[in-house]
Amino acid sequence: MGRHQACKVNLVADVFSMKERSRIMARVHSKDTLPELIVRSKLHRLGFRFVLSPDYLPGKPDIVLPRFRKLIFVHGCFWHQHKGCKASERPSSNLEYWNKKLERNIKRDKRNVNDLKRAGWDVLVLWECQVRNNDSLEGRLEKFMRSASAHPPLRRKDIKGGRYEKQKTDTN
Ligand SMILES: [Zn+2]
Fold it and tell me: How close is the Cα of 57 to the center of ligand 1, in Å?
């Protein structure tokens, strides 16, 4: 096992229970999309260690960095309706069905991001088209990761039994 790999495993081991840990590690290969893998490998190259999304966070963010209290969504342009993006164009048939479905997705995404921010997470949303085409992805990730967080990092005791405990700052 390489040093980086060991580091990642240690972080996962440190923050999550054994059961949670094996579930997370099992998911590494199961449902990753290419844009997610690209973002993860860039983060890895920049020296940041992350965990894959625990189920208890709203919207199941794709990448979670508990120590930095930051998380990243890698959104598909169609399902999450990237505004102004060609890939987000709605189908011309069954318009009513699609409008209802996609509007619901937009509303849910907005609510999830708000909930996460209120719980003290810094949130970055990356769009699939940006991840595929954008040379500045690494710069964006670095800027996001280096920006100061308004909240203290999560500690082990903040995450219990698959749920994260609300921070003092949330109730102010
Ligand atoms: Zn897009």
Answer: 24
Cα 54 to ligand 1 centroid, rounded to whole Å = 25
84 CA distance to ligand 1 centroid (A)? 8
Domain at 3-147, CATH class? alpha beta
Task: Report CA torsion sign: 114, 167, 64, 26.
Answer: negative
87 Cα to the center of ligand 1, angstroms: 6
pLDDT digit string, tens, across residues 29-80? 446 678 888 898 889 888 888 877 667 788 989 999 888 889 999 999 999 9
- From ligand 1's centre to the CA of 166, what distance in Å? 33
Burial class (CB in 10 A: 0-12, 13-18, 19+), 15: buried
Q: How far is the CA of 82 from the centre of ligand 1 (A)?
A: 5
Q: What is the pLDDT of residues 66-88, one digit of tens each?
A: 888 899 999 999 999 999 999 99
Domain parsing of the chain, residue ranges? 3-147
Q: What is the pTM of this model?
A: 0.70
